[in-house]
Amino acid sequence: MRVILLGTAAGGGFPQWNCACALCVSDAPSRTQDCVAVSADGEGWYLLNVSPDIRAQILATPPLRAGPGPREIPLRGVLLTDAELDHSLGLLLLREAGGLPVWAPDAVLDALSEQFPARSIIDGYGGWDWLPSSKVAVDGLRVSMLPVSDKRPKYARSSTEDGPWVVAYRLEDVETGGVFVYAPCLKSWPDGFDDFTRDADLVLLDGTFYAPDEMSGATAAEAGAQPAMGHLPITGSLAKLRPGPRWAYTHLNNTNPVIDPASPEHAAVLDGGASLPLDGTEFKL
């Protein structure tokens, strides 16, 4: 199984266009919004979430570019962890694909139909299938999902759906046995997550914030915003990591000090047994 990190930042990317915090005006490496490509054979690829940066991400990743035929593409489908705009807005940019299967939790499928009508817009281009994430069928990979949060996007607050609104995915290579867990949004360390990640070769974790009070200190935002935003800070997950899997953090917010490779927080993550990979990093499992 090949896993390529197309983007590793939270919504807005890094640096964020409307922010002049110390990090956003620094020389820290830029990052696009969170998205992953995975393949069992290196020919057919599936996207885990679809960021608004997807066009640039595809063009920067040779295995995902069109060809050899003039309209041949290697994309085979999309798996959504949630309905947040930074994870689903890129679907609109894939409208020329001629149709792809999209798997997502039922609440997410409903939100993309009733609250933010992406489905009706994209369906106008034909050939799209919208399927529950409990029934993912991916070539060469065995996929399961774990509900991890009931946090719904702001635009879907009026939705009557109960959730789950956010899931993590576990992908197992049928041939090699390699296991990849993708969990970019964790409100907490949920029940069953230790078993879900057991025997995994790579676990990609929510690294949105380093500490609970980070946003208020970096941008003068309201204190205590992180819990309401549905993200477990790195300080709440790092101590839970155990030997075995390769642990890596993604979905880094522009305020997160780990973005700076010279920061003590970056060093603390590495000392804690995890990594902070950049856009374009590839893993083979």
TrEMBL record:
Keywords: PQQ biosynthesis, Transport. The keyword Transport applies. GO terms for biological process: pyrroloquinoline quinone biosynthetic process. Residues 45-238 form the Metallo-beta-lactamase domain. Pathway: Cofactor biosynthesis; pyrroloquinoline quinone biosynthesis. InterPro entries: Metallo-B-lactamas, PQQ_synth_PqqB, RibonucZ/Hydroxyglut_hydro. SUPFAM superfamilies: Metallo-hydrolase/oxidoreductase. The keyword Transport applies. Coiled coil: none annotated. It comes from the Bacteria. It holds the Pfam family Lactamase_B_2. Belongs to the PqqB family. This is Coenzyme PQQ synthesis protein B. It comes from Amycolatopsis lurida NRRL 2430. The lineage of its organism: Bacteria, Bacillati, Actinomycetota, Actinomycetes, Pseudonocardiales.
